[in-house]
From TrEMBL:
Gene3D superfamilies, per database record: Outer membrane efflux proteins (OEP)
Lineage, uppermost ranks: Bacteria, Pseudomonadati, Aquificota, Aquificia, Desulfurobacteriales
GO molecular function: efflux transmembrane transporter activity; porin activity
Annotated protein name in UniProt: Outer membrane protein TolC
Coiled coil residues, start to end: 147-216, 320-379
Signal peptide: 1-18
Length: 430
């Protein structure tokens, strides 16, 4: 499986920079059940291809038989003046040894078309395997971005709770001095309770996201360190048509169907070959001691067999129609998949643009919140503002950071979907 991970590092169009994400991707490649199942299917197609090649080689069989008869057939012969004499045709116990070889000389293209068909199906299975890897790693990347989002949400919820508690202390002190009414105290206490509930919800969401990530990596990771890792923003400058062209050129599922279509073409030719004669070279060697009086008898024979099917109840015609229908079916599937891939690109790009707008708005909100916090602290130091203003500014900044964190997560998930739709890496693309 280490070799598999090394190989797929070149096969899968992903650029992984974060150490944690690299570890997660490697774990998914080695342990994800869906990837393992797809890999076994790829191995099966390889074996079927080799089996088709083996049909060119001769069939050699060796047969040994030991026979014991309860009654031996024979005949009697009488000469004048002499008693009748019985002659046995076979020995009562004898063996037969036979070696046979059969080599196809001409099959109307049956064998060669069979090999070409299996080769194309092997290629299609490989690209389906690659499509599975692409899909699984896309889901793993989205899990990773969601986990970063959930972790940041927990940290932000903790900041808001700390800010709410600090605000409550200030209001409590003012209430004890009779400066503010009881209503303000109850409102501050409610904010603390609300912040505590939000923190629990954030922790619950983090645990669920972590569990999904472990599931997609085959439950092979116990600890997933996220310290120092943050969501980034890498703009994609390619146009919609350029992305669609990339998808139609690079998406593995399209390549798989293109190979399947070629295989269907060979399948039609293979069916046509059933109407042609087949020629075989046959060699046999027999050895036996079943004949009385002559000891061991052996003989060899060489023959050429020509098989020309005349009538088989229309079976070949129905197979030909079936092969042509399968070819049309694959062609329709290919066109349908191209339209589906185009739709995936458009949908992912639309989500990416929407997330990009959210990121830009959130970045402006964070800058405004930082400026508000800076002003509130200056006002508090000059005894013009109150500590409540500072605490509220801190909470507002935390919420703005949370909005930015959510927008960045949506952007990266949309980017992962777009990379899946196109089948290529887009981070850092011009």
């Amino acid at each position: 499986m280490r070799f598999l991970a090394f190989l797929l590092a070149f096969l899968v169009p992903f650029t992984v920079k974060a150490d944690t994400l690299s570890t997660i991707v490697k774990a998914a490649l080695e342990n994800n059940p869906e990837i393992k199942r797809a890999l076994e299917e790829e191995r099966i197609s390889e074996l079927q291809y080799r089996e088709a090649i083996a049909n060119f080689l001769p069939d050699i069989s060796l047969q040994y038989t030991r026979t014991s008869l309860s009654d031996v057939p024979g005949y009697s012969m009488a000469f004048p003046g002499l008693p009748a004499t019985r002659f046995e045709i076979l020995e009562s116990s004898f063996y037969e040894f036979k070696l046979s070889l059969r080599q196809p000389l001409f099959t109307g293209g049956r064998l060669s078309f069979g090999v070409k068909l299996r080769k194309e199906l092997k290629t299609a299975t490989f690209y389906r395997f690659k499509e599975t890897v692409l899909k699984v790693l896309t889901e793993v990347k989205k899990d990773y971005y969601s986990l970063l989002e959930a972790k940041s949400a927990v940290e932000i919820a903790e900041k808001i709770l700390e800010s709410a508690k600090e605000h409550y202390k200030t209001v409590k002190a003012f209430y004890d001095e009779g400066v503010v009414p009881r209503r303000d105290l109850l409102e501050a206490a409610f904010k603390v309770k609300e912040a505590e509930e939000n923190l629990e919800r954030a922790k619950s969401a983090y645990r669920k996201t972590l569990e999904k990530l472990k599931k997609d990596t085959g439950y092979s990771l116990e600890n997933i360190p996220l310290d120092g890792e943050k969501l980034d923003y890498v703009p994609v400058k390619l146009s919609e048509e350029e992305l669609i062209d990339l998808a139609l050129e690079n998406r593995p599922i399209i390549k798989a169907l293109q190979a399947t279509k070629k295989g269907a073409d060979y399948g039609v030719k293979l069916t046509y070959s059933q109407f042609l004669p087949a020629v075989f070279l046959s060699f046999s060697y027999d050895r036996t001691d079943q004949y009385p009086g002559i000891g061991t008898f052996d003989a060899s024979a060489v023959s050429v067999l020509v098989n020309f099917p005349i009538f088989q109840g229309g079976k070949r015609f129905w197979k030909l129609k079936e092969a042509k229908s399968k070819k049309r079916q694959v062609e329709l599937s290919l066109e349908e998949t191209k339209h589906a891939v185009r739709l995936q690109v458009v949908a992912a790009l639309s989500s990416l643009k929407a997330a990009k707008a959210r990121v830009e708005a959130a970045e402006a909100m964070v800058e405004d919140a930082k400026e508000l916090l800076k002003t509130s602290r200056e006002r508090y130091r000059e005894h013009v503002g109150t500590s409540t203003e500072v605490v509220d500014a801190i909470a507002y900044l935390a919420r703005a950071e949370g909005f930015l964190n959510s927008a960045l997560a949506d952007y990266n998930r949309a980017l992962a979907e777009l990379e899946y739709a196109t089948g290529v890496t887009l981070k850092g693309a011009p």
